[in-house]
Specification:
- The protein is mostly helical and 128 residues long.
- Helix content is 69%, strand content 8%.
- The protein has one domain (8-116).
- It is built from three helices and two strands, in the order αββαα.
- Strands 1-2 form a two-stranded antiparallel ribbon.
Length: 128
């Protein structure tokens, strides 16, 4: 059995192993990204809960004042911009995963077709 391993076949098996790992990793990442796009993590919080009350001391006891409306709107806009950025990052991650799978699959298929057991080749030559 040790004689059936050639350097050529070892190379093809290693390339198949690596490309198979790449394909499986791309598939796992694509599924994860698709789930993140399907199940949105955006909190459904009204504007009044977007801020933390500002703390200040007054007359021997703490007083919590809400920030001005402009500050609340700015915080909400920042939150929406961060959500949009996360959403676009998830789409890019999904497309990168699909591209990895598309690139790895032909390499795997080509190298797997090139693997020829040495014992089978010798048997075919003896039969002829």
């Amino acid at each position: 059995m040790a004689k059936s391993w050639s350097i050529r076949n070892l190379y093809f098996y290693l390339v198949c192993l690596v490309t198979l790992f790449l394909f499986v990793g791309g598939a796992i990442s694509a599924i994860n990204s698709a789930v993140q796009l399907a199940v949105v993590d955006e909190p459904n919080v009204p504007l009044i809960h977007v801020y933390y009350p500002e703390y200040r001391e007054g007359e021997n006891k703490p007083v919590f004042d809400p920030p001005p409306l402009e500050e609340l709107e700015k915080r909400r806009a920042d939150q929406e911009m961060m959500y949009e950025s996360y959403h676009s990052w998830t789409w890019r991650s999904l497309l990168n995963s699909i591209a990895l799978m598309i690139i790895a699959l032909p390499f795997y298929l080509y190298h797997w077709k090139q693997v020829k057991p040495v014992g089978r080749k010798r048997g075919e030559e003896n039969a002829n």
